[in-house]
Design brief:
With 394 residues, the chain is of the alpha/beta class. The chain folds into 3 domains: 84 residues; 53 residues, Alpha-Beta Plaits; 203 residues, Vaccinia Virus protein VP39 (Rossmann fold, 3-Layer(aba) Sandwich). The chain is 36% helix and 16% strand. Strands 5, 6, 7, 8, 9, 10, 11, 12 and 13 form a 9-stranded mixed β-sheet that branches. Strands 2-3-1-4 form a 4-stranded antiparallel β-sheet. A hairpin with a 6-residue loop joins strand 2 and strand 3. Helix 1 crosses helix 4 and helix 8 packs across helix 9. The longest helix has 21 residues. The N and C termini lie far apart (68 Å).
């Protein structure tokens, strides 16, 4: 592909990604993969160059652009070499017309800026789109961090999680013996700390209420020494179906999966009502703490969707309050940096359930944020998380 043809491919892909964000379609990585499946003539160098252009344009455009062309024109405003590729050549983009301008640059969509937690300073905002590291969690059921490090000599310990290792960007961990044997799982250090904050111990009965594909379920099972019981539940059949092979590779046997119907969670978990030693509510959220991994998710959010998420979070916390036993704990986590999903959500739960006692989490990093702690990319080097924990009355 010529450089101009690569630019045109990036324009088409950003156009498709923006449309998918508007309509609730596939993720950017999926669209890029499918695009090149249909264009076998594109070599590995072409694919890398186009992908880089696509993500540069996405990261630059905080607001969903009017078109893929507008997004790449915006990128070209600070890149004369890129601007020169709008040359009207065969398979390339049309020449830039007089007065034609590109999409504006922003990290955070304007409507979301005032909704960031007040702990986040202006200086921190650029870090929300930094390149995310590749973190691994060592599976205690298979070995320790020293054993994993011996198999991954390029890795070094993460600063806060006692189970974490960090690899250089672009490392192919799935080709390693450490991964194939189940000794390590790919998991951001922040997610590791959330699982550790639950304080799960061997022999307990634990519910991971929003388990998804099970990353935190696996971490909980390892902390429990594969003893006791874990219910991994979710309303998303597709995500939950990915858990079984992960359990087998990790050597986990104490997990039962339950598919839930939305707004009928307590019916499916009736036998656990008032029985759980610990409930983790890793709730659906805006994902604003993971923009550095999935920058196009900024384009998927609007005030109406955010309001629905906040309402679901409150509902799930109330479900958890019915499932936990007297003296048991609830841990609430969202990968969000928005006050209404974090500190305000936690304060709302405390107002509704005043008999539940707020407890400090076993997280040594982050900052105190209302009843919980806030972890951010700029302050802690992790994905963004709000975490809070309560103990049920005896």
């Amino acid at each position: 592909m010529t450089p101009s043809a690569r630019l045109q491919a990036a324009i088409e892909l950003v156009e498709a990604i923006a449309a998918a964000a508007r309509e609730g379609g596939a993720a950017a990585d999926t669209l890029i993969r499918d695009y090149f499946k249909q264009r076998r003539y594109a070599g590995s160098g072409d694919r890398r160059a186009v992908r880089d252009l696509v993500y540069r344009a996405i990261r630059r455009s905080g607001e969903r652009p009017a078109s893929g062309r507008a997004a790449l024109l915006g990128l070209a405003e600070q890149d004369e070499d890129l601007r020169a590729l709008f040359d009207g050549s065969p398979h390339g983009p049309a020449a830039i017309e007089a007065g034609e301008s590109g999409a504006g640059a922003a990290v955070v969509p304007a409507w979301l800026l005032p909704r960031l937690d007040p702990l986040i300073s202006q200086d921190e905002i650029p870090s929300l789109l930094d390149r995310a590291p590749l973190d691994l969690r060592v599976n205690r059921l298979k070995g320790d961090r020293e054993a994993a490090a011996a198999l991954l000599p390029e890795a070094h310990p993460t600063p806060f999680s006692p189970l974490g290792l960090r690899l250089p960007e672009g490392s192919q961990v799935e080709n390693s013996e450490a991964w194939r044997s189940g000794l390590v799982e790919v998991q951001d250090e922040g997610s590791q700390l959330v699982a550790l904050a639950c304080g799960a111990t061997p022999g307990q009965d634990v519910i991971d209420l929003c388990a998804g594909a099970g990353g935190k379920t696996l971490a909980l099972a390892a902390e429990m020494g594969d003893r006791g019981r874990i219910i991994a539940s979710d309303t998303d059949r597709g995500r939950l179906s990915r858990l079984a092979p992960r359990l087998a590779r990790a050597g986990v046997t104490n997990v039962e999966q339950r598919l839930l119907n939305p707004r009928a969670e307590l019916d499916a978990l009736a036998d656990w009502r008032g029985m759980a030693d610990a409930v983790l509510v890793d709730a659906p959220c805006s994902g604003s703490g993971t923009w550095r991994r999935n920058p196009e998710t900024r384009w998927r959010l609007d005030p109406q969707r955010l309001a629905r998420l906040v309402e679901i979070q409150a509902y799930l916390l109330d479900v958890a309050a019915e499932l936990v036993r007297p003296g048991g704990t609830i841990t609430y986590a969202v990968c969000s940096l928005l006050a209404e999903e974090g500190r305000e959500q936690a304060l709302g739960f405390q107002a509704r359930r005043s008999s539940f006692v707020s407890e400090a989490t076993a997280i040594d990093c982050g900052r105190s944020c209302g009843p919980g702690r806030l972890l951010t990319p700029g302050h802690d080097g992790t994905d963004g998380f709000f975490v809070a924990r309560w103990r049920a009355p005896c």
